[in-house]
Amino acid sequence: xAYESAGRVWTRAGAILCLVGAAxxxxxxxxxxxxxxxxxxxxxxxxxxxxxxATFAHAAATTPVAHGAHAVDTSTLTVYKTPTCGCCNAWVDxxxxxxxxxVAIDTADVTPIKDRLGVRPDHASCHTATxxxxxxxxxxxxxxxxxxxxxxxxxxxxxxxxxxxxSPGMEGPTRDPYDVVxxxxxxxxxxxxxx
Length: 195
Known about the structure:
seven-stranded mixed beta sheet, 22% strand, two-stranded antiparallel ribbon, Glutaredoxin
C-alpha cells in the first residue's frame, strides 16, 4: 500500500480481504482525480443524489454543529476510496448500518486527499472520510465517530492506522487489538479509544 507505516505490519487477513482492491489502493498518484472530487470553492463536491440515504438515530447528529467559526453539516459522511477495495466498501456498509448517510467517492488514488486533509503516513489506512468538520481515516468504529461528534474535541480527526483485523470492515476469523487515534495537523496524537 502507498501508506504502509514504518514499523507497522499489515495483518495477513487484511491482505486477504483486500486482495483485489489492494493494488488499486496504492494506485499511481493522480492529482487530477482528487481535484475532480472538489468544486471550484475548495469544498468537497457532492453528487446530485446520494447513492443511498439513511437517517441518523440521534437528532443531534442530523443538524449543523458549530465547529470553530463555522456551522458544519454532520449529516453526510463523505468517503474517498478506490473503487475495488472490498474492506473500504465493508466500512461504508458498517457506517450505513449505524445510521450514517454516506456518499462514497471513488478515486484512483486517495494519497492527495489524505495529504490535503492532514493525514500523516503513520496514521494512514486505505480510505479517508470527512464528517462534521473532522477527518476519519480507516476503519474507525461508528460508536467512536458518534462520540467524536458529541464531544467535539479540538482535533483534526480520528484514525485507525493500517487495517487491523476485527475493526469494522475487517471482520474475519481472528481479531487484533487496535487503537483509534485522535490526531491534529500539527502532528500531535493520542489514543482516543482502544478495542
